[in-house]
Design a protein that fits this description.
With about 500 residues, this protein is mainly α. It contains 18 helices and two strands. Helix 1 runs antiparallel to helix 2 and helix 1 runs antiparallel to helix 5. The radius of gyration is 57 Å and the shape is extended. The chain starts with a helix and ends with a helix.
Length: about 500
Amino acid sequence: MLGREYKSCRWRHHLHSGASALKKNKRVSFFQSFNMAAARRLKRVAASQPGFLHLKSTSDSIDSMSSRRKRVNKNKKKNWNKHSDIIDVEEFLEDVRHQERTTGGLLSEKSDDSLFFVDVGQSKKAEQKAESIEGKKRKGKTSRPLRIDLILQHDSLVPPPKDVLAYQQPNAKKLRRIAQKAEQLAAKGVVPRRQKQLPNRRPVDRKAKKAVTEANNNPDREYYDIWGQESKDSADPWYLQQTGKKLVTRPEKLNEKPSVLPAVEVIAPGGSYNPDFFSHQALLQEAHDVEVKKQKEEDKIQRQLAINKEDRATEETTLREQVEGLVEEENEEDTAPNEEEGGVAVGAIALAEKKTERQRKRQKADKIKEQQRLSDRRQTEQRQQLFQLRSIKSSIKQQEKKTKDKQKLRKAKQEAQKGQPRRLGRLKFQAQDLEVQLSDELAGSLRQLKPEGSVLKDRFKSLQKRNLIEPRERAKFKRIHKLKYVEKRAFREIT
């Protein structure tokens, strides 16, 4: 207990000296010297007590105490750490740590039974056993532990620090509050909502047994393909759906190909290096039709952009435009005649005459008669439709037939469009020009054949035609800065 008091006194002295230095006044030095003297006196008293045992020599500490302290002004902050004497406190703490490492605690707190024992000598059995062990050691080599094992051996009696994180529980306060609330509700007889929903949950089929896996050394076992189809999961489908482990079903539309055209189209027989005459002429005719169609489209555009002869300006029209507004023409017709019809102004407001009671009754009766006439006519038409059932049925059949024909045409059109490129972007697909040679350009053998076209361009057009990519055009190069032409000095000297 005295050691603890001494420790608290020394720490109180150290903290007090640091706190007193924060006060920037002249009284600090007096109180500080008074506390240091009291601390030295307490240390001498504690060292004289028989309960506190030193495992290290205290000659160094006594010499340091006997040495005269240097007088330093500790009112300044720069002198606090430099001239603060805490050697005695560090020696005391090091002595306490040494006792804890070697004995597991302070010697002053240990009991006499743990520090001392009574030597009563060894028994005969123990002496015989020790002699037998010594005889065995003399015959064989002595087994000594390795130096590295002794270095790595744990020689401290201080218990390891307690792992606080191992005892902590996330959301412990929240879980404690939930448990307390559940106890309160249980005491009142209130059943939680989760327990009420348990009977409504689908029961789990626990009868299904797991498949017994066969041994790897069994030659008769079934062949398992690791690249094959995945095995079906036998878990509860409701559980898989709630946990998100169930795979999403792939839409059937994604399995359809965007086009029925083949990836590589075979060219017509007339495109061979040594084609037949008729097949070559058929290919030439096809290329001719394509060129004629292009020419017609160009002629149509030219006709639309051409200027009509009637719309051209003549000398008369130009003169009329020049003198427009200079000559005033008299308007013989009066723009706003003041006319009267029947002695009443045209723009006057006509007042409606008030109807008599007899006229209103007659108007109401006429309205009722008109409604009755319309209802009677509607009823007669409905009665007449009973005798027109055959004609109605025939008209319905004709309408259904027309609908089916339209559906067939629509399906046929859709099937035809599957082989045609769709509009995927702002540009339309333009088919590639036919690669055809004239009759005088045909080669007789493969050696004389000249390669035409580009494989890369052909594949690019095929992707566009099969609706895999949208039609594109080459990006236009636009120069940001203008070119500047400068004559070099060497060229200027020559010229």
